[in-house]
Every structure is written in C-alpha cells, then in structure tokens.
Design the sequence.
C-alpha cells in the first residue's frame, strides 16, 4: 500500500457560468461557507496527510498565489504552475510531471467540495492499482463523465458528457483522482476530443483498457460541483 503525500489542484479556470462572481477571481477562490473553495480542499487533504501541493493557476492566478503563498503559514509546501492555454485537463496534468517525480499523487479539480473523510480513503493506493477515480450516483452524466465499472468496481470505460442516445452508467465522475506517474504515459499520447480538448478521462480509459487497474471509489456524504451561482447559493444556505 502506497501512502500518498502530495496533491495537484486544478485552479486555472475562470468559471464563466459564475458570471460577475469571477470578474476578479478564479472560481476556486469563491467563498463557500466563509472560505474559498480551494481552502476547503487544501484543509481536507492536509488532514489526510498531504504535505506538498502543486496548484495549477491561470485566470487571475495572482489571487491564488497571494492567498496561499508558499504554504508556510498553513504548515505546507505549496508550489505553482501556470496553464497558459486552456486546452483540456489532459494537457494540464502534464504540468505536474516534474513535481510528482516517481511518486503517486492526488489530483482534484479546484471547484469540487466533498466530505473530508473521503480524502483519508483515497490517499491509500493499493500496490496493484494504477489509478483511483472517485464516483457518485444520482448525478446528471450529461454534465460530466459517465464511469463504467465491472463487478469489482474496476473502471472499464469513461465517457464525457454522454448524449441521451448513448449507453450510460449510474456512476458519475466526481472529480477527484489518485494516480501513479504511469498516467503521464497516457496523457502524452492524447489526441483532441470532439470538443477540441485533450481529455484526462481519455487517458484514464486508455490506461484501464490497456490492462492497468483503475479502481472506482464511491464518495460518501456531501459532494458538490460548484459549477454555477445556483449551486453556490444553495451551499451557502445550508
């Protein structure tokens, strides 16, 4: 069992659906229940034993850098990389190659909130597992990825934003992963998807279908993709 001690957080996007809320801030710095979404994520991972972070910034990246600094005031080590071209999650993961070296790592989108207890499960990576994909049920797979699994909850396929006429799955890609560095072998081979982006989920599918063991992990408790003002308002009312 490998204990993961580093994480990569994707915080480069503006989040255009947030409208004026992201005029001066990247979406991960919007406050939920009094503190930035990104701080909720950092604190949850820190409690699970993560010490080193790479935050990938882009739009208004200075807001993230100024808030977190080098991590010293949080008792952490925080580094940064900049995503210059917004060309998909498959490309942005490559920015973490030097940071992770030969170590396994957690990857989280910077706008996903979960019950922190889940992080404690995902930082333990079994020796025969190449990757973990977090999943939820009862979500609209047309808004994200449908994850297909076998009877052992091993991933067999992932399809982004399934159309109504496509085969679907009850499992929704919940936006938190654990990877070994082998994922870089697959992101390096990516071709643009029909949306014109390099999709991380395509690399995960290729890894799984090549024989690498990709485990699905069902998150427990609260989960939210803070994708629009309505969800933000709902979270802040609770």
Sequence:
């Amino acid at each position: 069992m490998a204990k993961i001690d580093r994480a990569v957080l994707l915080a480069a996007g503006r989040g255009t659906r947030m409208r004026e809320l992201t005029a001066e801030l990247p979406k991960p710095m919007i406050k939920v229940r009094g503190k930035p979404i990104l701080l909720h994520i950092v604190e949850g991972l820190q409690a699970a034993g993560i010490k080193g972070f790479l935050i990938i910034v882009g739009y208004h990246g200075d807001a993230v850098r100024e808030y977190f600094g080098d991590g010293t005031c949080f008792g952490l080590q925080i580094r940064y990389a900049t995503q210059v071209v917004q060309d998909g999650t498959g490309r942005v993961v490559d920015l973490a190659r030097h940071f992770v070296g030969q170590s396994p790592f957690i990857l989280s989108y910077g706008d996903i909130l979960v019950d922190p207890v889940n992080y404690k499960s995902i930082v333990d990576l079994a020796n025969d597992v190449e990757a973990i994909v977090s999943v939820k049920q009862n979500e609209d797979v047309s808004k994200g990825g449908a994850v297909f699994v076998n009877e052992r909850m091993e991933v067999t396929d992932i399809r982004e934003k399934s159309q109504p006429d496509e085969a679907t799955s009850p499992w929704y890609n919940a936006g938190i992963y654990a990877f070994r560095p082998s994922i870089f072998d697959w992101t390096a081979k990516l071709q643009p998807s029909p949306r014109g982006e390099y999709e991380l989920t395509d690399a995960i599918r290729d890894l799984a279908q090549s024989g690498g063991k990709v485990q699905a992990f069902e998150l427990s408790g609260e989960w939210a993709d803070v994708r629009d003002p309505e969800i933000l308002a709902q979270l802040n009312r609770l």
